[in-house]
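Run folding on both entries below.
>entry_1
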Amino acid sequence: DIEYIVKNELLKRHITITEFASRLGEPRQNTSSKLKRINSKLSDLEKFADVLDCDLSITFIPRTRETSDK
């Protein structure tokens, strides 16, 4: 999920959630809430990626369907 991915990136960069929130220009509690929500806005994800110096990639991957042609 998004929270895990972002927190993992923060750990890799030795950035605390407080520092991350500061770089985003918002209170720590707001950032924590955004990370916990499943439906983060695209604009939030873009900001997260920017602060982490990452590209944001959202991919639609076709689901495989088992079809039985017997």
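>entry_2
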Amino acid sequence: REHKQLLREANTARAREISRHTGFTHAKVNAELNRAAFVRQITEATVADLERRLAKADQWPAHPNTHPLAG
């Protein structure tokens, strides 16, 4: 359970960072990460879901206004 909480916190921090770097709203970043990781709701996500979502966040391009996971 503690591992799951740490993953949720890491996901939140990463989404916030992406939002700042891209100019996308936090809500848009979260929606895109959830879609890419096949997560319906973060509150219902399993540890595997959260790990997959964090991995997708790490794939997000660092350039401002770049659409996620394009290419």
